[in-house]
Amino acid sequence: xxxxxxxxxxxxxxxxxxxxxxxxxxxxxxxxxxxxxxxxxxxxxxxxxxxxxxxxxxxxxxxxxxxxxxxxxxxxxxxxxxxxxxxxxxxxxxxxxxxxxxxxxxxxxxxxxxxxxxxxxxxxxxxxxxxxxxxxxxxxxxxxxxxxxxxxxxxxxxxxxxxxxxxxxxxxxxxxxxxxxxxxxxxxxxxxxxxxxxxxxxxxxxxxxxxxxxxxxxxxxxxxxxxxxxxxxxxxxxxxxxxxxxxxxxxxxxxxxxxxxxxxxxxxxxxxxx
Length: 274
Hints:
about 270 residues; alpha/beta; Metallo-beta-lactamase, Chain A; 7-stranded mixed sheet; about 30% helix
């Protein structure tokens, strides 16, 4: 199964999971035009999506869900509050409860796990395929024991590292917004992300993607160095960063010829090989 972030950040989020002819999207925070453009870079049409799982209703994660229903009749999977807040079409919507397993084609399954995020019933997702697991988690200001339990030992972990504390503190945002971002229901700082990863990384964890970096209050080198310092003794794998203008790379789990990151060019060549 390949995991490709079409883009992560405050201007839109979407992550494509693909296994053979099955394609599932996590979040749809883009316009219809942007979604189609980014999927086309991976040779996937929106009409090929088996479904879209929306983690919560904030516009950068679910703002394009209704567009996907109206334009391409794509089924949307969301919890009850997210469904209501986005005004999703009943005939193309499937609601789920926390920890309901969502099954899709070619062995893709997803487990939604609640995470703390103010003003939204947000979930992180544990994607399973071929006996391996990948966590995709963003928009949380803290974590729970339940989340640690489900993420620990995942082969791949994609998690937000939203802000550098010093940049947020001395940056241009008003105090009220700074307080919201740094609250328990806000976002994870680089240091918090490092602390969480220190708890969940095991010998099974081979790769990490840092995502949802603030373009104002963070920088890739700050996120990577801070996180690596925190997990130096528990993680020896590869780390990469997903930015707003994707897709930049794909991650693979369950590959017979190894796993890890590949650029989109490499991914295209692999698909074309006999």
